[in-house]
Write a structure and sequence with these properties.
The protein is mainly beta. It contains three helices and twelve strands; from the N terminus they run E-E-E-H-E-E-E-E-H-E-E-E-E-H-E. This is AIM24 family protein.
């Protein structure tokens, strides 16, 4: 159902089914489509309440119909992620669209969220199907293995999946050593077995330059 028209445009072929997408991300469509704005990004009342309590912002629309619908957002690079009953953890601002069979909600991520100013929760996508995530520049997919933990700049983090444990640690970065840091530096550490998606660009974080 999902295919990349280009690295920055997602094409969704629909045969009467529905998809969820970031509100306002539709750029064109052919055929017969209906658009409905949804309240909150999570499924059901629990998802809505959780997002209000945590301040996690995610405005979603449901698109249903027959034909092809194209999605894009600020010329961001798009990556397709296939889920086989597992869970994808992704920053809400980096989630473009999900197939109708996937469930979205919120997941606790500990102190990592606080370092980015996004609350202590992040968006979860689970089930069987495809999700489209965005990145500022082509995303890099990094493998984490039990013997090879991974440390990531919070500003470059996009998403992760698999059996991973994450923690927040303070540390000195190259930018700090070069005198370009502006505050306490934090890093994200992943251990276990899974994949981490990072972007070649850094968003601003409350924890200071990282």
């Amino acid at each position: 159902m999902f295919r990349l028209q280009s690295s920055k445009v997602l094409a969704v072929e629909m045969t009467g089914d529905a998809v969820k997408a970031k509100n306002g991300s539709m750029v064109a469509y052919d055929g017969d489509m209906a658009f409905k704005k949804l309240s909150g990004g999570g499924d059901g009342i629990r998802g809505m309440v959780t997002r209000r309590l945590t301040g996690e912002q995610m405005t979603v629309m449901e698109v249903k119909g027959r034909g092809v619908c194209w999605f894009a957002d600020r010329a961001s690079e798009i990556n397709l992620v296939g889920l086989q009953g597992d869970t994808l953890y992704v920053e809400s601002s980096n989630l473009l669209a999900t197939e109708g069979g996937l469930r979205t909600g919120t997941g606790f991520t500990g102190l990592r969220g606080a370092s980015q100013g996004n609350g202590l929760f992040t968006t979860t996508v689970e089930g069987h199907g495809q999700a489209a995530i965005m990145s500022d520049g082509p995303a890099v997919v990094l493998r984490v293995a039990p013997q090879y933990p991974l440390t990531v700049d919070p500003g470059a983090y996009v998403a992760h999946q698999g059996r991973l444990r994450q923690s927040l640690q303070s540390g000195v970065t190259f930018r700090t050593l070069l005198g370009e840091g502006g505050g306490e530096a934090f890093q994200m550490r992943f251990e276990g077995d899974g994949l981490v998606y990072v972007q070649p660009s850094e968003r601003n974080t409350i924890a200071g330059d990282v």
